[in-house]
Amino acid sequence: MAHAQLNGFNMYYEIHGEGEPVVCSTGWGLLTGARFQSIPAELRERYQLIVYDHRGIGQSSDGSEHSGSTRLYAEDVAQLIMHLGLKRAHILGRGGLGACVMQELAISHPELVHSLALSGGWARPEPYHDAVDRLFYRLREQTSFELFQLYGAIICYDAEYFNENHADLLSPNGPWSELRECKEAHLKLIRACLEHDAYDRLPRISAPTLLIYGGVDLLAGPRLGRELGERIPGAELVILEGTPHVIASHPAAHARFGRVTGDFFARHSLSA
What we know:
single chain
């Protein structure tokens, strides 16, 4: 648990466990503190996991003026890896935004990326995904946090889970509650999602790549994974059938996510 002055801001990061290093990035939220438990147990038990807070979120400052971009956030990760003295690492990008940030990392800093696992990302804007994110942006910018949270819960969880857990999902401590007081930084993260376009540059990714998608993910479903898989040389695509955007809401799928990702990193061991 530490801070480092990197790329013009003060980044908070944590290092957990033992084993080969895996640098993790997530979507609009945290992987630090209590949220670290959202990483599958299989990965927490087998690897040294490095997690951090995006600019302006959690315990990281927002730094200098910027509009938010996946390229900027990728450079933040690159500087963290170099700060830690790692020559190469396994890379895990999840939650949509994290997968887009780590695409940019693999493109701009291939020397740092030994293997790459991406969950819920996309190659470029498409009309449906763009419309969903634009509504997220308007709700966050122009209405209450509670309306943003409600729409997020509808899009990111399936109906059965929502019906059983709606009181918790919509509570003050529910999903994304760590973003409640970080409106401007959150808007930058959403803007980065809207503007992400790595389509033409994806063939430059040289690291072995694993793509994982929830089969019924309304936000970033398998259609986006198939396009990514066509652009990244040799990419493997795994579909978790019947699973929404928040994979952790389905325990069996979440455990499979951990096994598949852990085995993928093991097949591409840093010591090989």
